[in-house]
Amino acid sequence: MPSLNIHRNDTVKVLTGADRGKTGRVLRVFPDKSTVLVEHVRVVKKTVSGKQGQNTRGGIAEQESPIDVSNVALVCPNCGPTRVGFKTESDSRVRVCKKCGQTLPTKK
Ligand SMILES: [Zn+2]
């Protein structure tokens, strides 16, 4: 099972694309595709059509689309968007900020 540097509930900054510069919370990660779903990032508007004969109304629904993890940077609480390193601490692998060395815990 491949794992990503970015985990669910991380705060990330978007580096490329239309949403460049935005920060958001990671809603889902897709390790097999190396993509993440980020809150309010790459929102696509979908036209929902009402079905004939049913009492449903058409409209516009907004939904996030996954983006590649290489297009986002994890935001360090100390110094902002950063690259992620790893170190072993108490026999477990933890993520650290490559700039300041801050441990980046995975929020549950
Ligand atoms: Zn840092």
Give a summary of the structure in a few sentences.
The chain has strands at residues 11-14, 23-30, 35-38, 43-48, 59-64, 67-68, 72-76, 80-82, 84-89, 92-97, 103-104. With 108 residues, the chain is mainly β.
Task: Provide an overview of this structure.
The chain contains no helices and 11 strands. The protein has strands at about 10-15, 25-30, 35-40, 45-50, 60-65, 65-70, 70-75, 80, 85-90, 90-95, 105. The protein has a 6-stranded antiparallel β-sheet, with no helix packed on it. A 3-stranded antiparallel β-sheet has the order 9-10-11, with no helix packed on it. Strands 4-5 form a two-stranded antiparallel ribbon. The protein binds zinc ion. Zinc ion binds near residues 78, 97, 100 and 102.
Number of helices in the DSSP assignment: 0
Q: Strands across the major sheet, in which order?
A: 6-3-2-1-7-8
3D shape:
elongated
Pairing-aware structural class of the strands and helices? mainly beta
| Rg over CA atoms | 18 Å
Largest sheet: 6 strands, antiparallel
Give the beta-strand count.
11
Ligands, deduplicated: zinc ion
